[in-house]
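quick one before i forget lol
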Amino acid sequence: MKKLLIVVAILTASFSQAQQEIKLDIFDALVLKTIEVSYEKYLNDKSSFGVSAMINFEKNSADFRYNEKRALTPFFRHYFTKESNWNFFGEGFFSLNFGEKEMKILGGPSTYEDYTDGALGVAVGAKYISPNGFTVDIYGGAGRNLFSENSPIVVPRVGVNIGWRF
């Protein structure tokens, strides 16, 4: 029993020492009426994994908007630098996205059809980490939807996040 308690204590201590971040995509919130919140956990100095959740509040009639109404995007990042406050990274992601695609009918009004799809994609970016834990990351990339014919072909992965590392 003592050995089990020691193992649990060591595992708990190792996970509590791992760096984690919570972030908000301010670009989406200010420009596109979309909220995207992300959580990222570092495995080591060079890699991390996380998940982003996005909800789109923009109406279909808007001039520019994401096609997705909601998306859940787990991602894996590999950091190429660690010597300074600015770190460059590459990212692989899978986006489970939900939305409506406009279906144009010849001689009639357009209708919208709901879709659910999954996209695989890549992104690149840079992250600034202040000594106090404030973070800013900028990234861009794209994925391709794989399963539905009613969904858009390309899923964007673009953002300017601000957050806090703890």
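fyi The beta strands are 20-25, 34-42, 47-56, 68-79, 86-103, 111-129, 134-145, 154-165.
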